[in-house]
Please model this.
Amino acid sequence: MLKTIRAPGMYVQGYNVIDEFASYASKFGKRPFIIGGKTAVSRVEKRMLPGINTHDLKCNFSVFTGRGTKKDALELASSALNHSADVIVGVGGGLAIDTAKAVSHRTDLPLIIIPTVASTDAPCSSVALQYTQDNIIDEIIQLKRNPDIVIVDTKIITEAPVRYFVAGMGDALSTWFEANTCDRTGAKNLAGARPALAGKAIARLTYDTIMEYGESAKMAVELKAVTPAVEMVIEANCYLSSIGFENCGLGAAHSFGIGVGSLRGTEKQLHGELVGFGVIADLLIENYPFNEIEKIINFCIAVGLPVTLKELGVDDMSRDNILSAGRACFGPGSNLKNLSFDISEELAADIILAADALGRRYKNIE
Model:
């Protein structure tokens, strides 16, 4: 039986660790090509400059304003080659990180990822999403390798809006349940192999960490404080969840997140907010014990994750509209095939409605 473990070459997490960027980048050469959104670049550039000057690096900061399309990646790849870059650096959230991954893939250059928010498990994975101009998944790129180095500055993470931190917990919350599904059904992981013991153990540790420390960590981040709980949840969001999902596989939670995310009104929702709702739907479709479902709903409410369609921006609750979400659950990026049974678009829509009804019940919303 083939088993695999994929992970970044190095994961570095700490307070003010961004100050050491140049010492890590210099391992690959002298000409980093840095891709990031305007806000993300502004948050890290000044912190990087002393080290950049000390190590005599010739950096090109490319402020990313695109939509994460193939065209964006191709244009940036051309710019990187024109700069004679020897390492690609992605700075920011999921869109900038995925774009940097795509540029690294197309140029075959080493990759350093510096997340400025802990909103997803994208930083450490070997997967990059490319989108259309309409924000629909266009391509899922399987990179040749995971990022060479991931640098997570806990001070920078806690300075970001708390909503991103909470969304990361929503994304990480799915890791164990989807890993458990794939393990039970014999589904393969993203490398086309079966989950190794380490992958399953890390997936479970992701869940245990989020449930144990998530609420207190959120309270600390609201105060811009870096506590041990915050450090543990950042690691769970950015590293543990990534290792867990990539080495075990994905399932219904992400598929339901894609389905709900196709509805009008959800455009401004974060990935982890949609996936968090998808976890509730996942537990319903897989018929988990009700006390387990209740535990997840109460946790989501406690940390501020959406548990109703209304909270996710959906106003049109007509059967036709929810059925369109059910259909979208089977679209690009879907992993419903990893369940142990087949489901229909109609059943997917019913599960979305049932998850919403439970959320409204626990929030005392009619």
Q: What stands out?
A: The chain has two domains: 3-158, 251-361. Residues 197-222 form the longest helix (26 residues).
